[in-house]
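Justification of computing resources. Each target in the renewal requires a structure prediction run like the one illustrated here; the chain below, 353 residues long, is used simply to show the kind of job we budget for.
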Amino acid sequence: FGRPSQHGIGGPTVIVKRYCLPAWLLRVRSIDARAYMSTDEKSCTALAHDKRGVKVLFGSTGWPLLQQFVRDHLSYDEHFLELDQTRSFADQLEDVDVLVPTVAVVDEKILAKAPKLKLIVQPAAGYSNIDVVAARKRGIPVCIAPGVNAQSTAETTIMLILMLAKKVCKGISAFKDGTLGEPVGMELRGKTLGVIGMGKIGTRTAEMCRAMGMDVIGVTSRSPRSELEALLTRADVVSIHCQLSSGTEGLIGKEELELMKPCALLVNMARGPVINRYDLEAHLQAGKLGGVGLDVHWLEPGWNPTEPVYQHDRVISLPHIGSTTTEVFEQFAKWIADNITRYRSGRALLGAL
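Resulting structure tokens:
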């Protein structure tokens, strides 16, 4: 789950070196920070004075390289806990100070199992799996990292669009069969891209598609229903990048799919439930849509690759690797470690909701 890793395409190459600092120097970091804190700031630093150290837990075993990077960036008294897959997630939260949920559901019941929890850091822009209101009632800050994965996720979006447009999977099969010159794909220049969710990822995707000569139209959560319907009717490629919420769950269902062109391409990089799975299956079985690309799923982790939607020959499915690059993981790891340090020293948190 989330295992493949590749290097980003755009931008200059940056080599980042991680150094192992001696324990005495790391201690100076915490001592110096506390020396300049006010009385009010000191009252908010339970983590800084905990003699047992700080315990950090990931809510999933996915993205192992990211977890390794986080280990590398933690201080001498910050301990990374391994998630035990033989035990329930809730039963492993008793001694956790900092939680990195990823795809784990963090609701009021889960929070009740974590009496020592003081900080939640989500290495993503999406946080639909976290009950922020319940966390606030407990006085637990929730931090997200919007924009860090924008470039890499946009690149993965472009990859899926190109694979669908050029029918790459069928081409691989044709090669193995010795068939020459098939299948026949389509050119993207002059085609229209419709972006649902013009945040950082959606905007970057739009920029890249314009560079390929595509026309781009987009809608946001504030757009009226009429604009969404116009987008679905006009677009040759629809790319979804919106947040999952009560307003966007099932946003693309039977009615919306019927508005799309019969050979349109559909890519979901947002969250699985934004599309109604059963309506999508029925639409594909009816011979509609030129192709579907899914990097997010209705159940994560634990999807069933034998389900009809994943078995369809016009569907390409990936294990949520949109932002799985070494560059993004390095940035996420630094961000997580920095926020832990900031919390311990009473400074402003990065990306706090």
